[in-house]
């Protein structure tokens, strides 16, 4: 019996079960994927719909910071001395340009001068925030501006606009006192963080400028204003297609600052210096307002707004007459004979009788050293010693007061002080004392009487700045109040305190009047050291003053004359006017002028004072009055009048330092009468 082939299964459901398991697993995973996708789509479309709508809108709209217009700086009469001017510029936004190199290549064809600055531009763009517009070029001409706008559709991330750039209409006249603005640096940001301040977002804008020196720096927070912003719509290529006015925020202008300076006086002061180096300060002796604060030579601050080329900056920095230095507050000079009124006041405080006469023979023996006077004056009382600027008088009597009392008097008159005028970085100078000697010179800590002689005539270790001399002169002229200087009149319309809100001077008014009369004689007695150079020619208005010639080196046995600029003497002149009712004080320092104070300082001070008085309505009225009669008597014509002599005249009688003039009687000093 034959058998038929047959198939035997050990498990009839084995294959079927395997298939069902695979189907179940794949189906389950598919169901899970579809469920997860559905859940995610639900989350995106329902739960997070608003969030992604906002992100989409942000991709469509950009918010660009808009720098605020900087506040103006004005003079006392409302003349703008630091303002803003329109400026066309082209900018690049890194986030909106796909290829920066290609963009700069295209820009280089439109603006060829950007090719040379390509590396600096790339550095600025990379350092800026991604959405911050970076200036590529400012002060475009109209043709350049139009050309960039014409090709703007082909330049994604590039825009041309008009902004406001800082502008100084008077150039160098106010360069030092106002200062200038410049780019924000990493050091500025770090300095703010160290002070615990949070840097505003606008500081990261490469086109923003902050104050770098002077008033611009001191009042930067007030002048800066508050940044605004513009909300713009961009397409997929980053090009601006519309502006959302409703979403924009206007910038808030910075505060206007009004100074006490007078533009006409400031300009005239810089003009009279010509090529000379030095400083001029003018103060109102009634309230302390500073009408002029000029340092010469100067520089154009407009160069620094866009970034001064290194070769120009190097030339300014290396020039020996230091045009970048503010000599009114940062320059220290020996005051020379302009310090003698201070010494005279100290002598009066010490009880010295002003009518005592000291015989000037042209020289004074100080131990083994001979100190010279600039002339032979014969018998001199205090009045004539100030009028004739007699060194021997002050050499002989200075130790009656002593260096500490001379210093104390100087401190009360305004020396060795930093004044709160809103501008920092003032150099205090120095008035030496016995304590200073003990602290400074360990090998010889004792003050010797022979050292006082140099201090008495404003030499030796004595150093002052022009602002201090102006305060000193104003206090002498005022005669009552310890006047303080004021430079900032108002900020944002809010008035600053007057310099007249001060205590009285701690001196006997009779003593101040003795010194004042000596200064009046300097400029108005025909034998005074600055008579001819001090005549204002303004009716009956007269000026009082004091000349000064300060050595800058030790002459030894040689001549004081030199053709080397840095070896020449400084020339100084301090003055106030009118003498009968003082209103204004002027100080002029001619650095290394090489002449006497009467021939270098006084003529410049006279021209500045004339400008000040002619701007005063009440003073202009006085000019119409009949002038005083012409004085009679000899007038000194020596161009070096008031300067130290080249050498001692042989045969001159030299007083010894030891004997002093007779001590005043216990009953006090005799009544003083100015010589006729």
From TrEMBL:
Domain Penicillin-binding protein transpeptidase positions: 278-609
GO annotations of cellular component type: plasma membrane
Enzyme class: hydrolase
Residue span, Penicillin-binding protein dimerisation domain: 66-243
UniProt xrefs under SUPFAM superfamilies: beta-lactamase/transpeptidase-like (SSF56601), Penicillin binding protein dimerisation domain (SSF56519)
Keywords, in A-Z order: Carboxypeptidase, Cell inner membrane, Cell membrane, Cell shape, Cell wall biogenesis/degradation, Hydrolase, Membrane, Peptidoglycan synthesis, Protease, Transmembrane, Transmembrane helix
EC number, as in UniProt: 3.4.16.4
Localization (cell): Cell membrane; Membrane
Bias (Pro residues): 661-676
Biological-process GO terms, alphabetical: cell wall organization; peptidoglycan biosynthetic process; proteolysis; regulation of cell shape
Region described as Disordered: 619-676
Main location: membrane
Pfam families to which the protein is assigned, alphabetical: PBP_dimer, Transpeptidase
UniProt GO molecular function: penicillin binding; peptidoglycan L,D-transpeptidase activity; serine-type D-Ala-D-Ala carboxypeptidase activity
Protease listed as a keyword: yes
Lipid bilayer topology: Single-pass membrane protein
Protein name: Penicillin-binding protein 2
Species, as recorded: Brevundimonas goettingensis
Lineage, top ranks: Bacteria, Pseudomonadati, Pseudomonadota, Alphaproteobacteria, Caulobacterales
Gene that encodes it: mrdA
């Amino acid at each position: 019996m034959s058998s038929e082939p047959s198939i035997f299964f050990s498990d009839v459901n084995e294959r079927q079960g395997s298939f069902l398991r695979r189907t179940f697993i794949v189906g389950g995973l598919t169901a899970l994927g579809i469920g997860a996708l559905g859940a995610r789509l639900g989350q995106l479309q329902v739960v997070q719909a608003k969030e992604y709508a906002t992100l989409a809108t942000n991709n469509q709209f950009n918010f660009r910071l808009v720098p605020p217009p900087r506040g103006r700086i004005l003079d006392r009469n409302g003349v703008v001395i630091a303002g803003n001017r329109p400026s066309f510029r082209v900018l690049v936004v890194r986030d909106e340009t796909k290829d920066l190199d290609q963009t700069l290549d295209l820009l280089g064809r439109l603006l060829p001068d950007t090719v040379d600055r390509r590396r600096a531009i790339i550095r600025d763009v990379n350092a800026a925030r991604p959405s911050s517009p970076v200036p590529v070029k400012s002060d475009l001409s109209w043709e350049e501006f139009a050309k960039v706008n014409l090709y703007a559709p082909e330049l994604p991330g590039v825009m041309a606009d008009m902004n406001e750039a800082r502008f100084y209409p008077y150039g160098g006249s106010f360069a030092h006192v106002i200062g200038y603005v410049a780019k924000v640096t990493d050091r500025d940001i770090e300095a703010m963080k160290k002070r615990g301040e949070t840097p505003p977002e606008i500081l990261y804008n490469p086109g923003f400028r902050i104050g770098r020196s002077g008033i611009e720096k001191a009042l930067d927070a007030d002048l800066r204003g508050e940044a605004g912003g513009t909300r713009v719509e961009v397409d997929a290529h980053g090009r601006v297609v519309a502006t959302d006015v409703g979403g924009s925020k206007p910038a808030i202008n910075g505060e206007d600052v009004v100074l006490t300076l007078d533009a006409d006086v400031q300009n005239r002061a810089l003009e009279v210096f010509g090529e000379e180096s030095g400083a001029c300060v003018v103060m109102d002796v009634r309230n302390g307002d500073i009408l002029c604060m000029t340092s010469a030579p100067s520089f154009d601050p407009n160069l620094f707004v866009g970034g001064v080329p290194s070769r120009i900056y190097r030339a300014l920095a290396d020039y020996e007459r230091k045009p970048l230095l503010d000599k009114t507050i940062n320059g220290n000079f020996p005051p020379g004979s302009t310090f003698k009124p201070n010494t005279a006041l100290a002598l009066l405080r010490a009880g010295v009788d002003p009518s005592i006469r000291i015989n000037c023979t042209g020289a004074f023996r100080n131990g083994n050293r001979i100190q010279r006077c600039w002339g032979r004056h014969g018998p001199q009382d205090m009045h004539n010693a100030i009028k004739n600027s007699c060194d021997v008088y002050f050499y002989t009597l200075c130790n009656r007061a002593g260096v500490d009392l001379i210093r104390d008097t100087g401190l009360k008159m305004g020396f060795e002080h930093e004044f709160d005028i809103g501008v920092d970085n003032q150099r205090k100078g120095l008035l030496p004392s016995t304590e200073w000697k003990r602290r400074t010179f360990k090998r010889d800590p004792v003050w010797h009487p022979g050292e006082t002689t140099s201090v008495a005539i404003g030499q030796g270790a004595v150093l002052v700045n022009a602002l201090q001399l102006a305060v000193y002169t104003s206090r002498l002229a005022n005669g009552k109040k310890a006047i303080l200087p004021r430079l900032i009149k108002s900020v944002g319309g809010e008035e600053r305190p007057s310099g007249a809100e001060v205590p009285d001077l701690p001196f006997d008014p009779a003593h101040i009047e003795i010194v004042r009369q000596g200064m009046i004689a300097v400029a108005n007695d025909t034998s005074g050291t600055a008579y001819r150079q001090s005549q204002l020619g303004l009716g009956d208005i007269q000026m009082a003053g004091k000349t000064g010639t300060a050595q800058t080196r030790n002459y030894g046995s040689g001549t004081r004359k030199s053709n080397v600029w840095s070896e020449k003497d400084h020339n100084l002149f301090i003055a106030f006017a009118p003498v009968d009712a003082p209103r204004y004080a002027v100080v002029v320092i001619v650095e290394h002028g090489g002449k006497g104070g009467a021939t270098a300082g006084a003529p410049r001070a006279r021209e500045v004072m004339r400008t000040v008085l002619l701007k005063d309505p009440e003073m202009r009225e006085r000019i119409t009055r009949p002038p005083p009669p012409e004085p009679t008597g000899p007038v000194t014509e020596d161009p070096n009048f008031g300067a130290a002599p080249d050498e001692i005249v042989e045969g001159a009688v030299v007083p010894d330092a030891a004997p002093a003039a007779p001590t005043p009687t216990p009953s006090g000093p005799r009544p003083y009468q100015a010589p006729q």
